[in-house]
Amino acid sequence: MHIVDTEEKRWLQRRFESVRSAPDFSADVRKHVLERLSAAEGLENYLASKYPGTKRFGLEGGETFVPMMDELIQRAGGYGTKEVVIGMAHRGRLNLLVNILGKNPADLIDEFDGKKVIERGSGDVKYHQGFSSNVMSPGGEVHLAMSFNPSHLEIVAPVVEGSVRARQDRRNDEEGSKVLPINVHGDAAFAGQGVVMETFQMSQTRAYKTGGTIHIVINNQVGFTTSHPQDARSTEYCTDIAKMVQAPIFHVNGDDPDAVLHATQVALDYRQQFKKDVVIDLVCYRRRGHNEADEPSGTQPMMYAKIKDHPSARSLYAQRLVDQGVISEESAKAMVETYRDDLVAGNHVANALVQEPNASLFVDWAPYLGHEWTGDADTTMDMKRLQQLAARMCEVPDGVDVQRQVAKIYEDRRKMQAGGLALNWGFAETLAYATLLDQGHPIRITGQDVGRGTFSHRHAVVHNSERWLYLCAASEHGRWSAAFHHS
């Protein structure tokens, strides 16, 4: 095991070895997994029959991704999570939008038919679109937000992390227990794009950490037409990049929904326990070409000869449950028929979708739309209040011994505040921050030298020369109104 922390290793060993990696799930749980698998496969089959050859970047071969996401969201809600932010590329996005986030199938069909009128928005293709909704969980309502993402695959990962960190900061969620980031990757992009490493590198820094991210790799073992590992990467696994932060990596068979469910539960529990990133490598396959207009057997003839005769994950699992007496064959077939009937009728097919969501869980963007910037903002400030703020920002608490040159900067600022010296840039900039904070606007500045300032002009953070302690010049009574992160 590449993890060096003893507590983490023992925790993982207990979770897997106690059940020999084969937990005994109840019949109801397994029936629910089959129902979600039927939904995942049902949508793909419906779209394939109605729009053959039309690009949708389907999930066929990796359908267990849908029950995995369902379990993640419901289990996170049980932990008290209020928001889940999801980033992913186009593979399986339409399936997730309809079966998990609750996009109305009728709206998706209108997009395929070209009937949807775009009054405002990007006009981008349907498998790049974002979405948001609320679902009910054992712990209450959970807001789901899927980020928009172009066909630049991994670029959405740091965007999701930034969105999550902002939501956590607004909620004063320092541990990251209320907002959960989930980033979904493809095996080729996960191993091939540098932004993946950069996002991992920031995952535990004070400026950017989010309490751990759930990474899911839909590992269909082929990137467009590249399938040989020696052409795709220089590592044993596509997920080896995650070892740099000692993230646990669970390789799980996409044709074994029980194993997928177990890995999903352990992954989320680990994240909640240790507040670190964790990776699920969902080893599956791609039943069709890179898109539905491609013919993959031209470049992978042997692979696709096997895939052609391979039963779907849903078929295999349904047969297993029938053989074990968990469900009757008629009930399993009824799930398929019921789902297709709902699709044809245009009914919502996502479980636990909240029709009248709690408005406090999400941001209403409507007031921000349709405005033009006029430049007529009132930036005046009361002189007396400015002087009070200037005096406060020049204070260094008793007992804090600052370095000689820094002390001189603060001494000069006190003279500026009193009118004895002309204001310099550092004083004016810090005073500008103070006015924003005074009006209730939080400030966040990040970078390697933002506390001091590149030209030694800011010194918004002072360091005690006698013992390790740093103070933000804009803080009050120990409360961090402004955050200057050296990373």
TrEMBL record:
Residues 82-342 form the Dehydrogenase E1 component domain. Its EC number is 1.2.4.2. Its cofactor is thiamine diphosphate. Residues 423-477 form the Transketolase-like pyrimidine-binding domain. SUPFAM superfamilies: Thiamin diphosphate-binding fold (THDP-binding). One of its GO terms (molecular function) is oxoglutarate dehydrogenase (succinyl-transferring) activity. It comes from the Bacteria. Gene3D superfamilies: 3.40.50.12470, 3.40.50.970. Keywords: Oxidoreductase, Thiamine pyrophosphate. The keyword Oxidoreductase applies. It holds the Pfam family E1_dh. InterPro entries: 2oxoglutarate_DH_E1 (IPR011603), DH_E1 (IPR001017), THDP-binding (IPR029061), Transketolase-like_Pyr-bd (IPR005475). GO terms for biological process: tricarboxylic acid cycle. GO terms for cellular component: cytosol; oxoglutarate dehydrogenase complex. E1 component of the 2-oxoglutarate dehydrogenase (OGDH) complex which catalyzes the decarboxylation of 2-oxoglutarate, the first step in the conversion of 2-oxoglutarate to succinyl-CoA and CO(2). This is oxoglutarate dehydrogenase (succinyl-transferring).
